[in-house]
Design brief:
The complex is a heterodimer of chains A (287) and B (397).
Chain A: H1 6-13, E1 26-32, E2 37-45, E3 51-59, H2 62-75, H3 80-85, H4 88-94, H5 103-120, E4 137-139, E5 144-145, H6 146-156, H7 161-168, H8 178-198, H9 211-232, E6 235-243, E7 246-253, H10 254-257, H11 261-276, E8 282-285
Helix pairs in contact in A: 1-2, 2-5, 4-5, 5-7, 6-8, 9-11
Chain B: H1 8-12, E1 14-15, H2 26-32, H3 48-68, E2 75-78, H4 81-95, E3 101-105, H5 110-121, E4 125-129, H6 139-145, E5 150-154, H7 168-177, E6 181-185, E7 204-208, E8 219-223, H8 249-264, H9 266-287, E9 291-293, E10 304-309, H10 314-323, E11 326-327, E12 329-330, H11 333-336, H12 343-347, H13 352-355, E13 358-362, H14 369-389, H15 391-396
The chains are: A alpha+beta (287), B alpha/beta (397).
Chain lengths: 287, 397
């Protein structure tokens, strides 16, 4: 049971401005159905350049609908310049607060507004994706990029993984990106203090791995990261040999019989080894 | 809140969330009450004031055993279903240290699923059997996965979200052939479908009181005669040394009574409750476009329906149902505080478009036809209203 304020419930039960503005000056949709929430926002300006009408359509939970509804009320009468300054915290405040785990609903409101304003300016609002200059996807479950995590962290002084999850959902599902998010946060907040203390003397000097070190590392990654993943689906893996940069493995259990074992080999085994041992590694299977 | 006497709150609430918990049956409450007031003695005491309580516990044990087709000595009282699950799985692993594998399914209750994750961290191999689109398990896959390194197989009898019934008797036979212990979490099956353990090869089984009209905080673990057991709770000699800790007497008495009543209502459950469920489901599906039933329709417990409504989100449905005085449940992400929709629906490959908008309604013998009509009358406009707000509805209409 969520502890929603009366204001949230009021806007959820009787949402204002549902629909789409005819011939809008700006419109945008953010979010998507697999994430569990999405918001389509459209607005029209009057002769003086103020937002005369704004409407929304939202797929989402109670607080997502309430955030969208109150957003349309808030921006009516605003100039584009004022609207650009509106933050997710303004939405939260206007609603009299949101539960921590629902802050992302207000962030969605802010993003929809920014995207609709970009549309008004004739700019294309791009949904960040893997190849985008906006950044690299860190959280694959919700499609959140490192750029977005950095931006949110800096703007809202978010210092923990939990904060990040509450604001943009990143890290809220499978958990595989937890370490990476923590590293991003460390990069932002610890860099500050490090820079001040020892002028970057701590910089790591990368020395190339010896062959023995590489073998040990491959074995460790297979034992602690790769095998447990395969075992979840009834398979297993054995490390056979390392020839130059070719890791020779044997797939066992269900993996051995699986017609898509080639995919497993490349996507799971090879990508993990590249990530955690050395990027030049390739994988070969022996039966 | 126990409100079966017709308090204001209860009059307002139509309760169709019986897979989450159930109302205490008035007869059950009547049976347990004296053990909260007059008969407070410790059943382990030498004096008659305490000693007489022990007889009532044995009576309750026989009542539980009778519902399961088991012998009373095979029943051990615990604090809940989760404790029984943990006790069963740890016991099997401790008794067979040479076997390092645990086999469960992808749709287990968190009591088993998260224990599996924990065991994996401790170095055990934990394999999750996949399910198909209807949430069914393929016995050939089971046969392939269970091997001679498997210490225990734990598969639920019925699923809490879809109501799907699993072929645990057959899986138990496969497990026995490979020398593994077979445990089943039957929390959602007991009282809803007939169980006769004498005829099966099931070694261990967990039940929870509050899912069949007894109070929360009481469970049992069935241990087939001859199955070795290492206790989970260590301490006194209670429960023949299988579960230490002073007995939760009043709740044990309640559990016994609840099982006795459940046995009497077994036919009713499979006839009347099933009819109500089917009526509700059929009416909703015929009146609401773009929705479908999740799970194995032919093979479900009689009280559960899980319906996916496309393009809307479950928490919104529940909040509006709540305003209408209806208590249900959803596999949506937002209702649980997690951000992903139900692991059961995802394991079944239910598309995100409908997994977020899934609604579980689970009935009991206390529900009526009038209530079903009220739910139908309320839910149709709720779905319509939310779809009108949804940006996906227009484009997909």
């Amino acid at each position: 049971m969520w502890n929603y304020t009366d204001k949230v419930m009021e806007h959820f039960l009787n949402p204002k401005n549902v629909g789409e503005v005819k011939d809008p000056d700006g419109e945008a949709t953010v979010g998507n159905i697999s994430c569990g929430d999405a918001l389509k926002l459209s607005f029209k300006l009057d002769d003086e350049g103020r937002i005369a009408d704004a409407k929304f359509k939202t797929f989402g939970c109670g607080s997502a609908i309430a955030s969208s509804s109150i957003l349309t009320e808030m921006i009516k009468g605003m100039t584009i310049e004022d609207a650009t300054k509106l933050t997710n915290q303004d939405i939260v405040d206007e609603l009299g607060g949101l539960p921590d785990a629902k802050i992302h609903c207000s962030v969605m409101g802010m993003e929809a507004l920014q995207a609709a304003i970009a549309n008004f300016h004739g700019e294309e609002y791009e949904e960040p994706d893997e190849t985008d200059h906006m950044g690299r996807i860190v959280c694959h479950c919700f499609g959140v990029t490192d750029a977005k995590i950095r931006k949110l962290a800096k703007e809202n002084e978010l210092k923990t993984l939990e904060d990040i999850t509450h604001y943009c959902k990143a890290g809220g599902a499978c958990g595989r990106c937890h370490e990476e998010i923590k590293e991003i946060l460390d990069g932002i907040w610890k860099a500050d203090t490090l820079d001040k203390s020892d002028n970057g003397k701590n910089e790591k000097v990368e020395t190339p791995m010896t062959f023995t070190q590489k073998v040990i590392k491959v074995q460790t990654v297979i034992d602690s990261d790769i095998r447990p993943m395969l075992e979840q689906d009834g398979g297993s893996i054995e490390f056979v040999d390392l020839k130059d940069n070719t890791v020779v493995v044997r797939l066992k259990g269900r993996c051995a019989m699986c017609p898509s074992s080639g995919v497993t080999l490349r996507n799971t085994v090879e990508s993990k080894l590249k990530e955690f041992v050395a990027p030049e590694l390739t994988v070969e299977e022996v039966k | 809140m126990y409100l079966r006497e017709g308090s204001e709150m209860e009059k307002k609430v139509i309760y169709v969330d019986n897979n989450a918990t159930t109302a205490i049956d008035p007869e059950v409450f009547k049976a347990m009450k004296p053990f909260l007031t007059d008969f407070y003695g410790n059943p382990s005491s030498i004096h008659r004031f305490g000693g007489q309580v022990a007889e009532h516990i044995e009576n309750a044990r026989a009542q539980v055993a009778s519902l399961l087709g088991a012998d009373p000595e095979e029943i051990t009282f615990t604090s809940c279903g989760t404790e029984s699950d943990s006790a069963a799985i740890y016991s099997a692993l401790n008794n067979c240290p040479t076997r390092k594998k645990v086999v469960i399914s992808k749709v287990e209750h968190p009591a088993v699923l998260n224990l599996g994750k924990h065991l994996r961290q401790m170095g055990y191999i934990v394999t999750e059997i996949p399910v198909d689109k209807k949430g069914r398990i393929d016995l050939e896959v089971v046969n392939e996965i269970i091997d001679t390194d498997t210490a225990i197989v734990s598969i639920m009898w019925a699923n809490n979200e879809t109501g799907n019934i699993y072929p645990v008797e057959k899986i138990a036979e496969i497990a026995k052939k490979k020398g593994a212990i077979f445990h089943t979490d039957a929390v959602q099956a007991a009282g809803k479908i007939p169980i006769n353990l004498k005829k099966t090869k099931i070694d261990m089984l967990s039940l929870s009181g509050h899912k069949l009209h007894a109070p929360k905080g009481i469970g049992i673990l069935y241990l087939k005669r001859g199955v070795r057991f290492k206790p989970f709770m260590i301490g006194g000699h209670q429960e023949s040394g299988r579960r230490a800790g002073t007995e939760n007497v009043a709740s044990i008495i309640a559990f016994g009574k609840a099982c006795e009543i459940a046995g009497k209502y077994m036919d009713y459950e499979n006839r009347e409750v099933k009819e109500l469920r089917d009526y509700l489901e059929q009416e909703l599906i015929s009146r609401i476009p773009k929705c479908r039933v999740n799970g194995d329709i032919e093979n479900r417990v009689p009280n559960t329906t899980n319906i996916a409504f496309d393009y809307i989100e479950g928490e919104s449905i529940l909040l509006l149902l709540d305003r209408a005085g209806i208590a249900g449940s959803s596999g949506s992400a937002c209702t649980t505080g997690s951000l992903e929709p139900s692991h059961v629906l995802r394991a079944m490959g239910v598309p995100y478009t409908s997994a977020h908008g899934s609604l579980r309604l689970s009935l009991s013998r206390f529900n009526t036809k009038d209530e079903m009509d009220y739910i139908i009358k309320s839910l149709v406009p709720i779905i319509k209203k939310l779809r009108e707000i949804s940006p996906y509805w227009e484009e997909n209409k």
